[in-house]
Model the fold of this input.
Amino acid sequence: MNALGHYTLTCFLLCASPPILAPRDAVAQRNAWVATWASSPESTNPNPNLPMLNLENQTVRQRVRVSIGGPQICIRLSNEYGSVPLLVGAVTVATPTDAASVRPDTIQNVTFSKRNSIMIPPGAPVLSDPVVFPVSRGAQISISIYFPKRVSTPTVHELALKRAVISQPGDETHAEKIDRGATSKSSILISAVLVPAQPSQHLVVAFGDSIVDGDQSTVDADHNWTSDLVRRWLKSSETPELAVVNEGLAGNRLLSNDDGVSARVGLSTGFGASALARFDRDGLSLPGVTHIVLLEGINDIGFPGAKIEGRYLADPAEVRTSEDLIGAYLQLISRAHAHGMKLIGSTITPCEGVDLPGYYSEAKEAVRQAVNQWIRTSGAFDGVIDFDAVLRDPEHPSRMLPRFSSPDHLHPNDAGYQAMADAIDLALFN
Done:
């Protein structure tokens, strides 16, 4: 295990462990928490026009919606893409009334080794002490973070799809409302929320690209398919409690890292490490995980030769074959099975008509069809979700059904994401 991996594991253990434990009790405590919400950390490219990327002596208030509840929470913060130590001056949690406001009687301090502030080393995450903050299934939490000094290389998640509010100068972590604040649809630092685990709980990690992330779904409405799945699960009285967390990452690929592509095409955030590179951090290492749903591969097929504003997303010569993608899937399956986890495969959804020149072609469509046929018939996965069958137009299978498609013809709309959630066989998670 490398140094960062050891540090990450240590962070998770700190949340669950009191100062002194007998050896047998220590083993039990290591498995005492489960992720109820998560988000994949991303790097950023400088952009002087975005307030979230130019923080100094300011507070950011952001919200997350948990999938399962508990009497306490722990919060994981990430400086994993930071190049310098990052000072966090204060953190609070509260019950939100809107993006900017919280119920003042619910505000609680979040501490780190019993301190209100912490310096996070570059490349590292940290986990808070447990906070007595009861949350119910499907509830929202407001998390306010004060940054006393300039944040030069923030770790963010671009498609948080919830408005975060950025204060005027000062520590506003205990304010009932942050007035006159700038807003952002991205989040910063927060990468997981944990609650105490209970018997019979399962944790499903949705892992993949922007269609997992929920791109083109309505901001502040929680209408990506993972949120729809949580709501569907909550209505079911015959199933054990299930946590669902979203580790989608816009632009992500199975086989290729960002490698500066996003900066070259003028985007403010990166596409992240490849699925093969980030699978341990964003999938296998989450506390309590039992199942991973994988939906990824469309960008491996579509990026080579595709352009944004005349610039290539990937070299046209970097063509990916069906064998390339299948090899990546087999690696992820083996790694999940080595940890005793189930990996559920999802078919790649259609994209003809996408508004990125070069992203779609008949040759690329043939690769998608070959990969989907393997996913459906190989038996390699522990289960299959046929999202392609749910979203495609029966009369034109290389296109998304118009009533499920967003204007970009690549991502579903709210109705499409709901259809994806409704199509999932809940028995897959037994």
Summary: The first helix runs from residue 3 to 16.
